[in-house]
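Journal club side-thread
Mid-discussion, someone asked how the predicted structure for our own chain would compare to the paper's figures. Pasting it here so we can look after the session.
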Amino acid sequence: MIRPIPFAAAALLLAGALPVSAHRIEKSFKVETQPVVTIRNASGKINIHPWQKSEVRVVADHTSEKVETYAEQMGNRVDVVTHLLSEKVTPPELRADYDITVPAETELQIRTDAGTVVVKGITGDMTFDTVAADVTLEEVAGFLVFKTVGGSLDCTRCAGRIEANSISGNIRLTQPASATVRAQTYSGSLFFDGDFKRGGIYILKSVEGPIEVRFSDDDSFALNASSVQGLVENQATLRQPSHRRASRAGVSNRLLGNVNEGLARVELFSFSGTIRILRRQ
């Protein structure tokens, strides 16, 4: 006669057959105004969003036994780190995901190799140093510095000074509220669609990648656009500067002139990529 397995023993057997559950930590830190949060992560999702509390809350998840996550506070700074416990780690074992809630006026310093970074509604200075991670910023403000090898930057309604550099990653700036934009890439694409602020400086450079800038008839900027081996396509009506002859709308490899009074400065340069100056629909 086969005796039934007791319920508790059956539960233990079933638990042993299931995959290992994710490691999860949740920590909260009391901070003062304008705290600094640093994040070092090899791979995974990093989501950062604001709240009204003077507190930093970190929720971390990972499944591998070869990494660990920890967060600690040093004064008004909170450090979040994924630490390797083994030298032999596969890419899936590197992954750790973070969901972090911070005061709106928080400075962020983020370094990650792969995965995604999403930041919304933060108004402190930010630096991003990635290899292949894609960064999405929405309604943020501050001094924004972005450096990557192959990751992309998608920045929507970003305010403050913007400096972005990539090797092959694409950089997309939509409706920025910034008076200073400097973006550079080797083979990625550069896209700018927003108002040009009075007295603002907007410099976009590439080696091989295309550059696209969209403008409205109400914008006012002095344009200097050139591509050594590529083309410059232009839909703007350019007025002649006082010191030299302006270019006409059409296709060439260099354009020079003012849109309306020329109150902002727009410089576009590519070695072999196509530059497009298009009227916003």
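Post-session note: The first helix runs from residue 7 to 17.
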